[in-house]
Amino acid sequence: MALITKIREKSGIAAAAIAISLILFLIGSDIFQGRSSLFGSNNQEVGVIAGESILLPEFQKKVEEATANYTAQTGKGPGEQEATMIRDQVWNQYILDIAYKNEFDALGLKVSSEELIDMVQGNNIHPSVRQQFTNPQTGQFDKTFVIQFLKNLKTMPAQQQQGWANFEKSIAQDRIRAKYESLIRLSTYVNTAEAQKEYQAQNSKFSARFLYVPFFSIPDSTVKVSDAQLEEYLAKHKDRFKGINSRSIQYATFPVVPTSQDTVEFYNQIKKLAKDLAVAPNDSAFAMLNSDVRTPYLLAYSEIPEVVKSQLGTFQVGGIYGPFKNGLTYSIYKYGGIKKDSLFTVRASHILIAPANKSDSAKAQAKQRAESILTQIKGGASFETLAQLNGMDGTAQNGGDLGYFKNNGSMTKAFEKAIFGFNGAGLMPAVVETEFGYHIVKITDAKTNTAYRLAAINKTIAPSQATLDRVYTQADAFANANGTLGAFEAALKKDKNIIMMRAERLLENATSINNLTNAREIVRWAFDEGTSVGDGSKKVFEQDNQYIVAYLTGKTDKDNVKVDDYREGITNLVRAELKGEKIFAKLSTIKGSLEQIAQKYGAGALVENVADVTLSTGMLNTAGPDAVALGKIAGLKTGKRSQVFIGDNGVFIAEKTAAVAAPALADYTTYKTQIQSMGIQRASYYINEAIKDNAKIVDKRYKFY
């Protein structure tokens, strides 16, 4: 029955796990678009998916259900970040239930009741069912537990029955998704000709000499780009510039920092707490009650802050020590002596040498290399340097440091046994073998099971209410005196002490702005239908340690792409075209060898050579991976020169000097598989995007949250 109870508690978590995989299936681009605000509107529409309207009461009910599940599973209510995640999950479930279901239904994809039974208690158990009904004592899945659970289901509370229904729905949707993705995979086919072409692109080589005049050789200031040219370019390339709903803002920030008076009062408070802690009958309870940041009473040596460790040897039982500073937090400690823990703590560094594969020869080579490195260290070489040069895991960049850890199973068994079987500190005399490879190990802090009784009061210095009020009054006065962007810019010129920040292209559902967290109120103001470009917020937004006054500087519309939305990018592209035409015209009038043409052209012209270049990964020295130039040169006959042509990054005249064709293969299966794998990924992405585009999704959640 204990297992059944566990299953009851965890079925919601399993459903959530399935939901997450389904949500990942939906990800492909930013689908969260929308356009207005709740302020001044009675519209209760949260969004539209495939023509189906999602209303706030229905959406909020599902959010509340998901929030209740989260609270039941974690034992605490969601914070702002978790609440946003929950709303995203609910929204993505709507997309799956509506937009994707339409496509699944059109293809006749479904999960029958017989198939669902088979997934839950038949011969083809779904992995999530198998995971949830695995006996924790034996580690084995037992179908009888499933059957027993289902027999008892009707006697369980309605909430748990609903949880199981949601779980079954999730695994059914997961199965349909798997069928759909299988169809996508089966629809991707690569023939031998395509595989042969890819093989040749990767293995056929050519050498060339070429004259190259880069676009950047002409100063930007000498090429004027008109608005008419920008408009013309955008009209011709609309597919390259996707519209989004966004807002850009500037804002003045008014930091709130403790004054000298606040600091004096804080120190007086710390002194009083230290005196009270010294005589408190229950020092650990007193410390917990008076701390802004609570820490355990019993601490392993590894858990003690470094600044405290340095003085720990001088502590006397019953003594008060500190304050110790860590950022804006100050700590005072009452020392209560030591206690022996059941677990040991150690700090170590390692250099992992992993074999290339599982063969005996690969293992022998890895072991030999590890022992060679160990010998170098024994001879005086730096452990940290050799770890950075040779380590084959994420610790290498930190000199192999693993930090502190305990003998509680957090490390693999063989590694833990070797480490905690070693006494003292220093380099271990032999390499340690584990399933990951061979480890050269240095103990940097010897193992210990000593725990320290430290009643800690941790107080964070903060501005007083008087300081908060003073800065708020200052920010409020600024907002009232500078109600428009023009007034704000004028104020910036007058007062160089004003702190101004920018935030470009905020999206409707953004929750943060630069380093401002939980900034939804500012984002909602920026997207409010009543907020126009040039408007100031005329109110003060409160953040944890500052006040904000915001100004709307720009907006973009998903359905109306304008030059200003991409002005800098389009300007660079048009300017590059104009430079290319200018260089092309000049080069076309010059005759002679490449060197003679370069000399006559003047500054900016380069003559370079490349050898053994492949079409798929070729680099053309200064020109880089210029796809147009690579294609043009590859297509030339050996010994022939091209006409002047414009590439991606500049203008070229090229001569192909040599070519080596890739030898024919009897079997191109490897290249077929390579192309097919990439094709499946692209097909899955594009089909998913097509489904969402076809559903004409309109996300208006930003109006309400």
What is the topological layout?
Layout: H1 2-26, E1 45-49, E2 52-55, H2 56-74, H3 80-106, H4 113-121, H5 127-132, H6 143-152, H7 158-186, H8 192-203, E3 205-214, H9 227-236, E4 246-255, H10 260-279, H11 283-289, E5 298-300, H12 306-312, E6 320-326, E7 329-353, H13 360-378, H14 383-390, E8 401-406, H15 413-420, E9 426-427, E10 432-434, E11 437-460, H16 465-481, H17 485-494, E12 499-507, H18 520-527, E13 541-542, E14 546-556, H19 567-587, H20 594-601, E15 606-614, H21 627-635, E16 645-646, E17 650-660, H22 669-694, E18 698-699
Antiparallel strand pairs: 1-2, 1-18, 3-15, 3-17, 4-12, 4-14, 5-11, 6-7, 7-8, 7-11, 9-11, 10-11, 13-14, 16-17
Helix pairs in contact: 1-2, 1-3, 1-7, 2-3, 8-22, 9-19
Overall spatial form? globular
Number of β-strand runs: 18
Q: Tell me the major beta sheet.
A: 7 strands, antiparallel
The low-confidence runs, each spanning 5 or more residues with pLDDT under 50, are 1-42
Beta strand %: 15-25%
- Based on secondary structure, the structural category is alpha+beta
Number of helices: 22
InterPro entries: PPIase_dom_sf, PPIase_PpiC, PpiD_chaperone, Trigger_fact/SurA_dom_sf
Family: Belongs to the PpiD chaperone family.
GO molecular function, one term: isomerase activity
Keywords: Cell inner membrane, Cell membrane, Chaperone, Isomerase, Membrane, Rotamase, Transmembrane, Transmembrane helix
